[in-house]
Sequence to fold (292 residues):
Amino acid sequence: MEVPTQPGPPQSQAGDAITYSEQHPHSAPPGVNDFSCHPDAAHPHPVVLVHGSDGSAYANWAGLSPRLKEAGYCLFALNYGQKPGTEHYGMETMTEGAHELDDFVARVLSVTGASKVDVIGHSQGATVARYYINRLGGAAHVNRWIGLASPTYGGTFFGIATAVTSVPGGSELIERFGSEALAEQVQGSDFLTTLNAGGDTVPGVEYTTIGTRYDEVIQPYTNVALHDPGATNILVQDLCPLDQTGHFNLPYDPFTQQLVLNTLDPTHAVVPPCTFVPLGTGIAGVIIASNF
Fold:
């Protein structure tokens, strides 16, 4: 686990955030990991941000963190699942990531004096956080879980992943060319089957998923949703059909960011303006930043 503390600037696009994080390793999103921050009565729960596969705290949260900080939250984020010998995170098993999150939340609670945290995860980070809550006793320490584009029941990756895993050695192939965590996020994986067995939620935690009909990773997009008690499932297009944001852009989408703020503080919810977001927004930037 790494706790990034080098302040980075705000970003409005995922691709720019990825590029900056690669050029400035160990960067923290704006307003994050100030361990002198103490929650107030209006925002009693520190917010812990959990990044996605092959991501980082900065790459995922440089757009949302400034809005959360401006709203008055104490913010914290870790880089977990580091692939040995690299600066790539979110690459080890999700169980390992969940144990790192467990340690980090304990530190946040100890330093801030708070009784519980709210957790926001994007993609793999949402499932890592849910494993921590559901299987490692995190429910005692978490007030709200918010999953953005959560691979709750996994993705088929346009059918490619399920086709690969259907043949002997297919999962190992995904691990070799992707990561162990990526293989665990395929629809029907042993990891997800075990995690969701007996109920995909546990009592005492408020669960909210925010998904998009145009998810480039989780197909069918309905696999984002939770099925069991205590869950609220939000589809961006049900509220704003003009917003065709996808998987990677979701944390940088202003409409989605306001939905997160509303979920954290429903008594002061604001109806976000519904504006047109073209299909594929941000994808080119993510591909360029990730491969060049």
